[in-house]
Hints:
258 residues
Amino acid sequence: MFLTFEPYQPYQFFKFPISMKSSNPTAITVAEMRAIEHDAQVGGISALQMMQTAGHNAAQALADYLREHWPPDRPARILFLCGPGNNGGDGLVCAAALFDLTTRGQFGNGAIGALTLQIYLLRARKEDDPVFQPVRVRGIFVADAESDLRWRVFLQLIGHANIVVDAVLGIGTSRPIGSHLKEMLDEVRRVRQLKREEGGPLLIALDGVSGMNYDTGELDPNSVAADVTITFHAPKHGHFRSPAKEASGALLVAGIGV
């Protein structure tokens, strides 16, 4: 069964550098975001519903951004890198919603070339995971790091992609980047440097760059800077504080249905 989503909510757009300070009233703390989500659940909106709405709105924001900024004759080969937590869930919902936009003819409209979607999971998801099932139903290609011997599949995918979506670590992560994720991000960084003259791959972060502190703006040394960040509900203070500010690129804010 295909997911249904809340109606698309208009989003805000910020382009750095801008004259907004970390005390800007539109920015919120992690604790404030948690309280907003908690109050929504008390009011009858489940965490899954918020994730579905967030992912759908992120897909629409990404589609709109590419219509405006992507070369019209260039195919869009999008690779979603998804972690095992909620940020990865946002990425899976976004990928499924983006697929639906293309099949309904609401994505390209002649504005861009052909579009392909692929997903690489840091950890395999259960087949009955409610945000993973829609990806399977739609036939989107999925691979995972746990079964990818010597990164063979990942190296092919990242080498082919010209748009990479970072949906690995989100607002709830405090641990440093290491192990498999460090290797993955090192390769993303290497490919971006290698293809810099070709203008890609474009990196889109969902909610925030993996490894950033959403309150302080601190950034893990293994983080990879984004060209565009689509954050949820409201900007966080960390988006306006260095070094995460410089690593966030253009900032879009997509609603979560509350």
